[in-house]
Amino acid sequence: MTLEYIPKISIDKVYNLLPIDYREHTKPADIKEFDDTSKKELVKKRFYKLKLGESEIIHLTLGKDLKNVFNKTKSFYEECPEYACKPLFIRLTKY
Fold first, then answer.
1. What is the pLDDT of residue 91?
2. Which of 2, 7, 58, 68 is most buried by a 10 A CB count?
3. pLDDT confidence of 8, banded at 50, 70, 90?
């Protein structure tokens, strides 16, 4: 198995990966990349927060081959919702 790293990605590109119903209520400025990944040129995953309104924040993870992680997180959330964040969506695409 070869590790695949992803380069820095513009906030506009990340925003355009969001489902349309999220884009209708947000703007690119509502997305911020976490310091841990924004300071690095190449990483396995990039992490962002999307601010919805005044108090709600969605954690976004951008990376390759995350379908398995999404499915495992979804299963864990269904069994233990008090201990996990609810996975909201996955977008399978090349970026």
1. 85
2. 58
3. very high
